[in-house]
Amino acid sequence: MSLVSSILLILGVFFFGIGTIGILRFPDFYSRLHAAGKCDVLATTLALVAVAFFNIHDFSWASLTSWDNVRVSLKILTIIAFVYVASPTATHAITKAAFIVGIEPWEKKKRDL
Amino acid sequence: MRTLQQDAHIRMPWQDIILQTSVRVLIPFIQLFGLYVIVHGHYSPGGGFQGGVILGSAIILMALVFGLRASMHYISENANKTLSILGPFVFCFIGALCIVFGGGFLDYGALNKIIPLGWNEWRSFGIFLVELGVGIGVMSIMLRIYRVLSSGGTMDRGL
């Protein structure tokens, strides 16, 4: 069980890293926000699933039926549901606000030397 | 693109179907979580202040998305004033009641003389009563601060 949660955590950190690289390297406000929103949702999901698995120590019958362990894991999974609803909504709100203010999207154009 | 932006200005920025739908789904859960933080405060991280801030932020979220008028319809300014007085009043009333029944200020064990639940049970239950007052006060003060700041000090007509 700790192997499963380790793999999930490493995957989550990997996607967090990709999101950070995207924020730093993308040319535009909108594409940076795109990187931040998507990678954060996926990485948060993976990390929280890892934590929820780690909380149930093994797949034995005793730990799967002890209500305390399962309850804490279900609370952690509830955070995932919240992030799934809240994070795209926040990204949408920021993007729409930027669009109304009038930030132009980036276009690939010839570099004038 | 220019016409779309002008159109968005006319339609008012907060009237957005995606935001309104997801916020309408989220607000009851945020309020439920705030109540959980208040009630569960003496076993886990949390308490009156944190739960009150979460309850206030749910209504601030409603005011952000649906406009200040809608939140006025939900909790009017007079109700908000009443709540912001009621919260500290509950706190001080419980504290003074403990003095009246022979303990120190906020010494909940003395309340055992009114309703005999047991000394230790009253010590646990009195914290809950006091934190309820703190939560109500913090919620209404948060909402009050947001309304005063966002309306530029003119609270007579909303935005």
Provide a brief overview of the structure.
Chain A is mainly α and 113 residues long. Chain A has one domain. Chain A has 4 helices and no strands.
The span between the termini of chain B is 27 Å
Helical stretch tally of chain A: 4
What is the helix fraction of residues of chain A, given as a range? over 70%
Main pleated sheet of chain B: none
Poorly predicted runs of chain A: none
Strand percentage of chain A lies at under 5%
Written overview of the protein:
- The complex is a heterodimer of chains A (about 110) and B (about 160).
- Chain A is mainly alpha-helical.
- Chain A has one domain (about 1-100).
- Helices cover about 80% and strands about 0% of the residues of chain A.
- Chain A has four helices and no strands.
- Chain A has helices spanning about 1-25, 30-55, 60-65, 65-100.
- Chain A is elongated, with a radius of gyration of 19 Å.
- The mean pLDDT of chain A is about 85.
- Chain B is mainly α.
- Chain B has one domain (about 1-150).
- Chain B is built from six helices and no strands.
- Chain B has helices spanning about 1-10, 15-40, 50-65, 70-75, 75-100, 120-150.
- In chain B, helix 3 (about 50-65) packs parallel to helix 6 (about 120-150) and helix 5 (about 75-100) packs antiparallel against helix 6.
- Chain B is elongated.
- The model of chain B has no long low-confidence stretch (mean pLDDT about 85).
- The interface of A and B includes residues 86 and 102 of A.
